[in-house]
Every structure is written in C-alpha cells, then in structure tokens.
C-alpha cells in the first residue's frame, strides 16, 4: 500500500521552515498531501487561493506532492482519504507539548493514524508564519523567511 502523509497547517504563508520539513519527509513517503485547513474561527492574512498557489509554486516540479484544502477535523479528513500518516514539524518544547496532545487525541479518534514528527533544521527553527505576517504588515523584508514563489504584489 502506498504510504501517504498529510501535512496539515494554515500556511499563512508557507515559510522556509515548512518547505524544509516537507523536503526532508519526501524520501519517507510515496505521496505527501499538503493540506490547508479552513477554520471559520480563524482570520487569515492571505486568502486560501493565494496560499494554495504559493505552495503549488514551491513544489511545481515535485510529482509526489499535492496541495488540498479541507474543513473540519484533520483526523476525519485523513480517514476519508485513506491517509495513514500525519506529518508535523517540531521547533521547540512548546510545539512538542501542543503537538503531543493533538497527536494523542487524533490517535484516540483514529487508531490507525500515526503522527510522524520531524525536528526542524536549526537554521529555520525560529521562523513562524506569525512572525512573517508581522514583518509583512510592517513592510519588512519578508523574502528572507519564505520560498521564492511567495511574493506579495
Ligand atoms: P498551524 O495552523 O497548525 O499552526 P502552521 O502552518 O503554522 O499551521 O504549521 C504547520 C506545521 O508546520 C506544524 O507542524 C508546525 O509545527 C510546522 N512548522 C511551522 N513552522 C516551522 C518551522 N520553522 N520549522 C519546522 N516546522 C515548522
């Protein structure tokens, strides 16, 4: 059976940290679905189509990657699509604490769903989408934190 991983997130916007995790996970899986969750309670800086287009631009030449959007529970979406693995990145202890609870809750709901964690590369561990958004809002040089396909008109 093909090994398929779901990498869920907001990607508002995709950063070099996200790209690093995805690239390093490529040899582990047959396919990676990058899944942008649409949460009605959250407000985003960039609209969904823009976020999808940026990610598609980053991985345009990578046949093992697809970009999808979903609503509702990540674990339910994974089950509906016969996905066995969730992929998450860990930057620091607070990511770990947060991710541990989510992974355990997901496993309680979907016992076949295994969460795979990759540690961030040290050089990207300080990058978060929220910092990038702050830089963008104040007119700073966001380009050093994001892949080349992320450009704001
Ligand atoms: P969320 O809305 O779930 O916070 P994000 O888009 O911020 O989504 O992050 C999606 C995933 O990418 C998470 O597993 C997060 O830990 C990981 N991630 C975010 N930034 C980095 C980074 N700089 N290095 C490694 N992983 C990261």
Write up this protein.
The protein has five helices and five strands; from the N terminus they run βαβαβαβαβα. The longest helix has 17 residues, at about 95-110. The protein is an alpha/beta fold and about 150 residues long. It has a five-stranded parallel beta sheet with strand order 3-2-1-4-5, sandwiched between helices. The model has no long low-confidence stretch (mean pLDDT about 95). It has helices spanning about 15-25, 50-60, 75-80, 95-110, 130-135, and strands at about 5-10, 30-40, 65-70, 85-90, 115-120. α1 links the parallel β1 and β2 (about 30-40). The chain has one domain: HUPs (Rossmann fold, 3-Layer(aba) Sandwich), CATH 3.40.50. The protein is globular. The protein binds adenosine-5'-diphosphate (ADP). Adenosine-5'-diphosphate binds near residues 95 and 124. Adenosine-5'-diphosphate binds near residues 15, 89 and 91.
> How many domains would you count in the coordinates?
1
How can the largest sheet be summarized?
5 strands, parallel
Strand content: 15-25%
Class inferred from helices and paired strands: alpha/beta
Shape: globular
Would you summarize the structure shown here?
This protein has 153 residues and is an alpha/beta fold.
Break the fold down into its secondary structure elements and pairings:
Layout: E1 4-9, H1 16-25, E2 31-38, H2 48-58, E3 65-71, H3 74-80, E4 85-90, H4 93-109, E5 114-119, H5 129-137
Bound molecules: adenosine-5'-diphosphate.
